[in-house]
Amino acid sequence: MGRVMTHSTDHRKRMHVRSLLILTLLLNGCAAATAVSAIPGVLVERAVSFFSGQEASLPVGMQQALVGVQQGLKQMGLQVDVLEPIEDGYAVEFGNGELDGGVQLKRQTRSLTTLTVSAHRGLTHEASVEQAMVKAIRLATEQTNKDIRFDFQGYRKIYAKPDTGKRHVGWFRPGAMLHVTKNKHPGWLKIKLPSGQAGYVIANLRKGGG
């Protein structure tokens, strides 16, 4: 009985999260940034936890799969906003303020990669969009030469600490919407990476302009 949640209880919980998200957006307004824009990461993360995502296997190596993700998202009018190396793969975040989500690549063998795509519009799970993304990414990997690599032009590094001398833990696209939290280091923003770990980017937020 402890594992059972009634439909009405689950519905009230979702509505509570939705109300909190709307209230947060109304109170905060639009936060434009010189390099990134802030979004209410905690509430979005809580909402995304309801979604499982669409999984598929790609008969290609990791680098070819990563290029496929970049090209597949581009074909759907989206971009890789954050790219984070994880154990045996990569984690990606994408979003345009309306449709948001993530992609995870996990290496199975040198020629086999597992792809997982999660997409949501606000608090609404977009399963059909996930399926379309999987198809677009699969097609892009088939059309990509295995010698082509992810295009890092325009991307900037994410650091483990607010210090350019420290280890870098990923890349972000200037202008992207990121999960930003407060920190005490001027000129730096603390962000949440797709894995949930923290990272730091050189950027500044400014109020208004949204």
N→C terminal distance: 47 Å
- The CATH superfamily of the largest domain is identified as TATA-Binding Protein
- Rg, nearest Å: 18 Å
CATH architecture of the largest domain: 2-Layer Sandwich
What name does the CATH topology of the largest domain carry? TATA-Binding Protein
Succession of helices and strands: HEHEHEEEEEHEEEEE
The unreliable regions are: 1-35, 40-50
- Report the average pLDDT across residues: 79
Oligomer: single chain
Helical residue percent?
25-40%
- Note the main sheet: 8 strands, antiparallel
Strand content: 25-35%
Specify the number of helices. 4
Query: Class by helix and strand content?
Result: alpha+beta
User: Quick one: how many beta strands?
Assistant: 12
The top level CATH class name of the largest domain: Alpha Beta
Shape: globular
How many separate structural domains?
2
